Recover the amino acids of this structure.
């Protein structure tokens, strides 16, 4: 059986988990801390990052590579449009969400969520400028009609549902305002919509249970 390794509080772990649940793929879960130095972990995820999966074919790391493999292996129900250009637009959105937004906002997480040292004013200013530019660009691409790429739930929603709220919380903690909302990205009704899906409800419930355990 496919096993998903990582943490239920990880947004990228939950990106993969949401895709698996949407597909109805049977899978097990194995708790693995990020940046593990265990040789068994490094053999599957050489940087010690989560998530990664183990399968009868071997292991696979990096959330987007995993989601793409899931889509190719279990094509129904689809998480990509059949039209190649429309599918490329979904992947384009994922790059903007995961790399231009989340990776930039991730620089705030230590101080915002984990008791890390406050960032310098210069660093905060740099990060804010990067985020504001990326949010303006994302706003041009995102549809929210009702899903992030249009009328179909796609793998872009697996990224957006798990990343946008974290970005919003981190920027509010760092800057006193949710930069997504301030930039005109009204994502909260979208999050409420996706939260009605059984797959999203499972992800949220498991995340909250993990957070309660500390």
């Amino acid at each position: 059986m496919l096993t998903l390794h990582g943490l239920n509080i990880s947004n990228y772990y939950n990106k993969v988990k949401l895709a698996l649940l949407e597909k109805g793929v049977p899978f097990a879960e194995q708790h693995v801390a990020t940046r593990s130095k265990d040789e068994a972990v490094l053999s599957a995820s050489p940087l010690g990052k989560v998530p990664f999966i183990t399968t009868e074919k071997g292991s696979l790391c990096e959330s987007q590579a995993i989601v793409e493999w899931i889509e190719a292996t279990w094509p129904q129900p689809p998480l990509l449009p059949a039209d190649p250009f429309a599918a490329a637009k979904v992947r384009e959105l994922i790059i903007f969400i995961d790399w231009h937004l989340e990776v930039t906002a991730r620089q705030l997480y230590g101080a915002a969520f984990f008791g890390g040292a406050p960032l310098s004013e210069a660093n905060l200013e740099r990060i804010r400028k990067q985020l504001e530019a990326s949010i303006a660009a994302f706003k041009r691409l995102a549809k929210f009609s009702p899903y992030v790429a249009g009328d179909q739930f796609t793998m872009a929603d697996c990224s957006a549902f798990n990343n946008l709220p974290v970005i919003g919380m981190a920027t509010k903690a760092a800057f006193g305002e949710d930069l997504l909302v301030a930039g005109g990205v009204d994502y909260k009704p979208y999050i409420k919509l996706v939260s009605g899906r059984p797959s999203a409800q499972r992800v949220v419930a498991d995340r909250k249970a993990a957070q309660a355990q500390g």
Summary: Residues 102 and 209 are 23 Å apart (CA to CA).
